[in-house]
Design brief:
The chain has helices at about 1-30, 95-100, 125-130, and strands spanning about 35-40, 55-60, 70-75, 80-85, 90-95, 105-110, 120-125, 140-145, 150-155, 160-170, 175-180, 185-190, 195-200, 205-210, 210-215, 225, 230-240, 240-250, 260-265, 280-285, 290-295, 300-305, 310-315, 325-330, 335-340, 345-350, 355-360, 370-375, 380-385, 390-395, 410, 415-420. With about 425 residues, the protein is mainly beta. It has one domain: Methylamine Dehydrogenase, Chain H. The longest helix is centred in the first third of the chain and has 27 residues, at about 1-30. The N and C termini lie far apart (about 75 Å).
Length: about 425
Amino acid sequence: MKTRTCIIWILSVLAVLAWVAGAHAQRAGDMDSGSILRHYLISNGPKGPIHGGESAVTDMILMDDGWVYGSTEATWGANACHLFRTDGEESQHVINVTEEIPGQPKVSDMDIGPKGELIGVTTTYDEVFDDEKNTYEGGHLFSYSIETEAFIDYGVMVAGQGINCVAADTLHTRIYGVTYPSGHLFAYDYSTRNVKDFGEVMTPWRVKDLGRVSWRGVPKVLMIDDAGTVYFSTYMDVKNKRMGGRIFRLAYGDEKPVFTGAVVPTQKGMDDDPVYENTIASAIKAMDGGFWCGTSVDGFLFKFYPSTSTVINKGKAFQYWNLRSLAYGGDGRLYMLGGRDYDNSWLLCYDTMTGSIDCLGWPTHTTQMGVICRDKEGKILMAENLRNSYIWVYGPSGRLGIQGEAIIQRSGAGGEVRQP
């Protein structure tokens, strides 16, 4: 009996080990062989312009000169943020933003300005906002000319507040932004240099989760249509209950945002605790005037048509949440970066012609990425948001012919760009 019991025990252990190995294999998530062409560091080492701890990427945009420009934030005790550029082969330092604007550790978002220049906004960390002795002056709006290399600081937009996201209305030479953590929508007029505050779009609430403090309800993305109307998603109070994922708009000349009636798709009965937020985490303009959008809670892909306030849910392709960045590839397909903010990230692909969604996997099981962007050749650049961050270059064989909807690109939280 003892021998039989021992054999059964051994077989049980082997079965468990086999299951663990199989589960690990299912979790490996490796991309197709050869699809990752290369990866390279953004930081330049202790003597370089971008030190370790200063290379966590926050945004990337393909500009008209053929370079992808990126922004960073300081992590792990560092204090400087930068602009860099890459051609998909190497990374080059552009400017130390913190040297130009002291006290700003993070470029939170970028877009393309009314004159084709790069515009960006800065912020600081939740721990600073939560400190009663906080002396943070406020987030700045700035521009950088890729032609003249001129850097212009337009100053603090709202005293003591960071800036969460930014978008340019090139028709009216206006820059829109949302402050953090107060959640105010504002506009900066290029011609008059005036700042207009449209007020609080939703009262954010302070949440402490796993020791981390944050303020929920602040819009992550701004979308602007061809008429200069700005759209965003946030919460609204319905019968004393916070209802998430409501899409609002502010037309040029209006004094207050209004609810469009459109609601971000969500999985009913899941994650209804106030610690979770249901909102648009990423957006990119489509050829037909709509916007492709990714959600934060469930990782749904949907299309939003501003002209009719219509939402068309395309579903989801992986079991996690947070479609945090979108970019068109050279093959016309829509590439999506999914995964939690501080966890391994997945690359997904949506064929806008057939409606097919594929989960392509991840470069490695430890890769933690913040944003993706298309380079001038149509390859997908995936940038990490770690202390020493890499850019991973994804280029599937035979899929780089321009087709589909690849007319206008908007990387995750970044800006629009005309393809060269």
